[in-house]
């Protein structure tokens, strides 16, 4: 991996991180713009996908740390003065080139594998962090009903996108006490006419949600 490749790789990592930041900023801007038309703020969610990507990020950090320490302990006496040199890809590539020229194939393969694993690990750490940020933030936004539509997990849907809705329940909560209702909206897309958006609404909000939704979306029979 030469200097150009290193720069391209760093660009990809920054790009991945900016995707996560962009999703958060974009969602927040939408909330600020629609603040005055906010009617009901419903339950927030702990995103399972966000937690999975966070777990994946931790796994990659642990693996990368082990990889760095393993190779650092091999090189620290003769080839590196500080553990921070292990993060200097260009320096590591010079070592790889020197080992190859001197036929030190054991050292060559150790450092070559380290550099390859380190760069790919950085990519997956950046990707996992970006996705974790996005899903966890969307879950923290929860469901908000506005005069002009619904925000659910960071995604905003205008009322005219829904072709009908129905409500079913009540259902008992599995973790906490109380009951909730399911508001199921028919939201056809290009790929599926049967696409739905399902909102779990606590019983205390059911009447208020029904009142707002029924004004904007036609109620249909339960399917």
How far apart the termini lie comes to: 57 Å
Biggest beta-sheet profile: 4 strands, antiparallel
Number of domains: 2
Mean pLDDT value: 82
- Relative strand content: 15-25%
Q: Which structural class do the helices and strands define?
A: alpha+beta
Overall helicity: 55-70%
Weakly predicted, low-confidence segments: 1-5
The tally of beta strands, per DSSP, is 7
Strands ordered across the widest β-sheet: 1-2-3-4
How many H/I helical runs? 5
Give the ordered list of helices and strands: HEHHHEEEEEEH
Tertiary shape: elongated
In angstroms, what is the radius of gyration? 26 Å
Give the arrangement of secondary structure elements.
Layout: H1 3-33, E1 38-41, H2 48-75, H3 89-101, H4 105-141, E2 143-146, E3 149-152, E4 155-158, E5 164-172, E6 179-186, E7 196-202, H5 203-216
Antiparallel strand pairs: 1-2, 2-3, 3-4, 5-6, 6-7
Helix pairs in contact: 1-4, 2-4, 3-4
């Amino acid at each position: 991996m030469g200097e150009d490749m290193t720069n391209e790789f760093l660009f990809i990592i920054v790009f991945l991180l900016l995707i996560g930041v962009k999703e958060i900023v974009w969602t927040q801007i939408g909330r600020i713009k629609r603040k005055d038309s906010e009617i009901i703020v419903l339950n927030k969610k702990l995103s399972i996908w966000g937690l999975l990507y966070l777990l994946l990020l931790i796994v990659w950090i642990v693996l990368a740390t082990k990889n760095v320490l393993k190779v650092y302990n091999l090189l620290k006496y003769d080839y590196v003065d500080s553990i921070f040199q292990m993060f200097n890809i260009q320096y590591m590539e010079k070592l790889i080139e020197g080992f190859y020229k001197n036929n030190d194939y054991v050292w060559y393969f150790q450092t070559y594998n380290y550099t390859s694993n380190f760069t790919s690990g950085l990519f997956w750490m950046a990707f996992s962090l970006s996705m974790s940020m996005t899903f966890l933030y969307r879950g923290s936004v929860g469901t908000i009903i506005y005069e002009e539509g619904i925000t659910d997990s960071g995604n905003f849907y205008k009322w005219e996108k829904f072709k009908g809705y129905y409500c079913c329940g009540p259902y008992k909560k599995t973790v906490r006490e109380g009951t909730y209702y399911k508001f199921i909206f028919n939201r056809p897309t290009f790929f599926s006419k049967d696409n739905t958006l399902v909102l779990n609404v606590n019983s205390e909000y059911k009447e208020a949600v029904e009142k707002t939704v029924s004004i904007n979306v036609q109620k249909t029979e339960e399917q």
